[in-house]
C-alpha cells in the first residue's frame, strides 16, 4: 500500500460534470495501462491520497464570486487478473467551504463524495461508472446540493451499448 499526496488544482477548476467524465476515463487509463508483464500474472495496487485546493470560483446558484477551499482524502484500487481482466475503483470524500467576496452573501460549508469504477478486459466489454454528490449549507440557512452520474458500456468492437450522463443542481 502506498500513500500519495495529490494536488488537484487543475481538476478543481473543471466543472463537476467534467470531473465525473475525467474520473471514469482516468480509471480506464490506469486499468488499461498495466504493463504487458502484468497480463501474465495477477496484480493489484492500492493508493491512498489526500490534499487541499484553494481557488477562485462562483456560487453555482447565484453567480456570486468567491473562493472555494476544498480538503479531500481518498483511496484508489486497481486489480489486474492473469487473463487481462481488470477492476478499478476510487472513492474521494472531503469538505468544501465557499466564501463569497461580498460579505453580504452567505458562506457555504459542506461535504462531498465522489466514486468511480471500471471493469472489463482488454479486447472485451468495458464498463465505467462515476458518481458525485455534495450538500453545502449556507450561513443564512439555505443549501446547495448537486448530484451527478456518468456510466458507459463499450463492447470490444467500440460499440457503445449504454451511456448515461446526468447532473442535477438544486439551489435554495
Give a quick set of tags describing it:
172 residues; mainly beta; 8-stranded mixed beta sheet; elongated
Please characterize this protein's 3D structure:
This protein has 172 residues and is mainly beta. Helices cover 12% and strands 59% of the residues. It has an eight-stranded mixed beta sheet with strand order 1-2-3-4-5-6-7-8, covered by helices on one side. A hairpin with a 4-residue loop joins strand 6 and strand 7. The longest helix is centred in the first third of the chain and has 17 residues. It is elongated and about 60 Å long. The N terminus is likely disordered.
A few lines on this structure:
This protein is mainly β and 172 residues long. The protein has helices at 9-12, 16-32, and strands at 2-5, 43-58, 65-80, 85-100, 108-121, 126-138, 143-154, 160-170.
- For the CA atoms, what is the radius of gyration? 18 Å
The SSE order reads EHHEEEEEEE
Low-confidence stretches: 1-39
Name the shape in a single word: elongated
- Widest sheet, order of strands: 1-2-3-4-5-6-7-8
Helix/strand structural class = mainly beta
**In percent terms, what proportion of residues is strand?**
over 45%
Number of helices: 2
Give me the secondary-structure topology.
Layout lengths: L1 E4 L3 H4 L3 H17 L10 E16 L6 E16 L4 E16 L7 E14 L4 E13 L4 E12 L5 E11 L2
Parallel strand pairs: 1-2
Antiparallel strand pairs: 2-3, 3-4, 4-5, 5-6, 6-7, 7-8
Amino acid at each position: 500500500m502506498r500513500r500519495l499526496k495529490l494536488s488537484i488544482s487543475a481538476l478543481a477548476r473543471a466543472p463537476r460534470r467534467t470531473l465525473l467524465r475525467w474520473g471514469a476515463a482516468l480509471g480506464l487509463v490506469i486499468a488499461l495501462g498495466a504493463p504487458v508483464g502484468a497480463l501474465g500474472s495477477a496484480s493489484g495496487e492500492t493508493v491512498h491520497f489526500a490534499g487541499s485546493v484553494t481557488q477562485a470560483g462562483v456560487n453555482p446558484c447565484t453567480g456570486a464570486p468567491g473562493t472555494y477551499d476544498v480538503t479531500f482524502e481518498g483511496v484508489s484500487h486497481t486489480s489486474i487478473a492473469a487473463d487481462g481482466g481488470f477492476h478499478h475503483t476510487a472513492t474521494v470524500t472531503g469538505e468544501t467551504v465557499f466564501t463569497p467576496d461580498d460579505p453580504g452573501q452567505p458562506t457555504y460549508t459542506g461535504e462531498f463524495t465522489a466514486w468511480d469504477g471500471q471493469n472489463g478486459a482488454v479486447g472485451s466489454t468495458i464498463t465505467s461508472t462515476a458518481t458525485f454528490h455534495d450538500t453545502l449549507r449556507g450561513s443564512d440557512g439555505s443549501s446547495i446540493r448537486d448530484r451527478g452520474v456518468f456510466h458507459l458500456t463499450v463492447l470490444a468492437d467500440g460499440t457503445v451499448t449504454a451511456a448515461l450522463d446526468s447532473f442535477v443542481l438544486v439551489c435554495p
